[in-house]
Design a protein that fits this description.
Layout (H helix, E strand, L loop, with lengths): L13 H9 L1 E3 L12 H9 L8 E5 L4 H12 L3 E5 L5 H11 L3 E4 L13 E3 L2 E5 L13 E5 L9 E5 H15 L6 E4 L6 H14 L2 E4 L6 H10 L4 E4 L1 H10 L9 E4 L6 H10 L4 E7 L6 E6 L13 E2 L4 E5 L7 E6 L6 E3 L7 E3 L2 E10 L5 E6 L3 E4 L2 E4 H8 L5 E10 L5 E9 L7 H8 L11 E6 L8
Parallel strand pairs: 1-10, 2-3, 2-4, 9-10, 9-11, 11-12, 12-13, 25-26
Antiparallel strand pairs: 4-6, 5-6, 7-8, 8-18, 13-14, 14-15, 16-17, 17-20, 19-20, 20-21, 22-23, 24-25
Helix pairs in contact: 2-3, 5-6, 8-9
Length: 469
């Protein structure tokens, strides 16, 4: 195995990774297709890229064991992983790589000319290209990881974390939701989410639990089948998935013991619905954010009275919370004190959420009851959930305002005919003849993910708008 000895203890060894992979079942790989190169081969291929320690590496892969192999190969190779959606357009990858000073991209198949490269390198089953913008320049070090966040800092901001603090957060989450070594955890969420990589993949690594990797996309029938066929005992889902399960109305199958929900506000009616679908099981409602490392609080809903089903529970062990400047109703911004907080935000004009080392201003509005249970009330920040995906309105605005002839862009949230949130965009055009709704749609397509693309675009001439200075 071609790896260099690192001066820092990552808290993860090659043996830990090999053991986790041996406990992992990849449902995305057909049964008649071999499991691909082993981890040592992938790590050796990555080492041959010759990247300097501390160099960020963009990983654009769909869920599967191949993603975990690449992620851990980057870490154990002394570099800094940053996972993105495999559908991320090349223009966006290039811009992100430039802002983060990434030295390489790993993906399933790569056209090197799109990234200013003249060749691809084989890394296991995947391909890599070296990026001209790369170089740590002292900004990152072995033992660091970058995680994208779609908050108000926009499409190119990321949270810089220590790997050892992510492992600590995974242990705290595992204790809060009762994950055991004999559990099998089903991953249906994208592994480029901090929730999935920390609260599921790293949780399995630190507890000895097994993994079953599926989706996305989520399908209730496929979900139930996976639980039954593969002996899944624990699963983490989003409120959007929870709503689908409740609407389907079918009892959750055995052997599922534990269900955790996180990623957005949970409707108390859906909490009650999930409890009725799994009356002998455990249900945990969780709250977290990437900046905090990521999990913050957990409610054991199955053990609480119904009036607390609107709560996200109590802070994890080792985590402190306070509410800043509460109003007469007790609602204010939640501050989180934790030793798993990010080191800093990176990216252009990134809003720094740290008020002090380890103290995160969440941008989320909360109140607490007399027993310290936390109740989410809304957001200060500029993002919205669109079909289960957290979308930054700043990102949409930023992308639209790069289009020639667009003077100003105003994204708004509305409801579609199906009742789901969507984004509409009002464009103020300095060149109204050139700027049309079709032109803006086409210009945004390579810059935005599907969930970020506006459903409806309205073009307004600048002369018809009131100018403010």
């Amino acid at each position: 195995m071609l790896t260099r000895p690192l001066a820092v203890d990552l808290g993860i060894s090659r043996d830990d990774v090999v053991s986790l992979l041996a406990r992992t079942l990849d449902l995305g790989r057909p049964g008649d297709v071999p499991d691909g190169p082993d981890f040592d081969t992938v790590a050796a291929d990555f080492a041959r890229l010759g990247l300097r320690e501390g160099t960020p590496v963009v990983i654009a892969l769909a869920n599967g064991t191949h993603l975990l192999k690449q992620y851990f190969a980057v870490l154990l190779g002394g570099c800094v992983p940053v996972s993105v959606a495999p559908s991320t357009p090349s223009a966006r990858v290039n811009a992100l790589a430039g802002h983060l000073r990434a030295g390489a991209l790993v993906a399933a198949r790569i056209d090197p000319s799109r990234y200013g490269a003249d060749r691809v390198h084989q890394v296991g089953e995947q391909q890599a290209v070296l990026l001209a913008a790369g170089g740590p320049q002292g900004a990152y070090a072995p033992g660091h990881a970058l995680m994208l966040t779609s908050g108000t800092s926009g499409m190119f901001s990321a949270c810089l974390h220590r790997v050892d603090s992510l492992l600590r957060n995974a242990r705290r989450h595992a204790a809060a939701v009762g994950t055991r070594a004999d559990d099998r955890l089903l991953i249906t969420l994208p592994l480029y989410y901090s929730y999935a990589i920390v609260a599921q993949a790293l949780t399995a690594l630190v507890t000895g639990a097994g993994l079953v990797i599926s989706g996305p996309p989520f399908n209730p029938v496929g979900y139930r089948s996976a639980v039954v066929r593969h002996g899944v005992t624990s699963s983490s889902i989003t409120p959007t998935i929870a709503r689908q399960l409740v609407e389907a109305g079918e009892r959750l199958p055995s052997p599922l013991r534990s269900l955790a929900v996180g990623g957005d506000r949970m409707d108390p009616a859906h909490v009650a619905g999930l409890l009725s679908l799994n009356p002998t099981g455990e249900l945990y409602v969780t709250y977290g954010l990437t900046e905090a490392g990521p999990r913050v609080a957990t409610l054991a809903a199955h053990a609480e009275p119904a009036h607390r089903h609107a709560s996200v529970g109590l802070p994890l062990a080792g985590v402190g919370t306070t509410i800043r400047e509460p109003g007469p109703d007790g609602v204010g911004e939640l501050l989180v004190a934790t030793d798993t907080a990010l080191l800093r935000k990176v990216g252009p004009a990134a809003r720094q959420p740290l008020l002090a080392p380890g103290l995160v201003a969440t941008g989320d509005l909360f109140r607490s009851d007399d027993d310290g249970y936390l109740y989410y009330e809304g957001r200060l920040s500029d993002f919205v959930m669109v079909r289960g995906e957290k979308v930054s309105l700043f990102t949409v605005r930023q992308a639209a305002q790069t289009i020639p002839g667009v003077a100003r862009a105003i994204p708004r949230v509305s409801r579609g005919a199906d009742g789901e949130s969507r984004i509409d965009l009002e464009v103020h055009a300095s060149e109204p003849v050139m700027v049309t709704d079709d032109m803006v749609h086409e210009a945004l397509r390579p810059l935005l993910l599907r969930s970020e693309r506006p459903a409806e675009i309205t073009v307004v001439p600048v002369s018809a708008t009131v100018q403010h200075k």
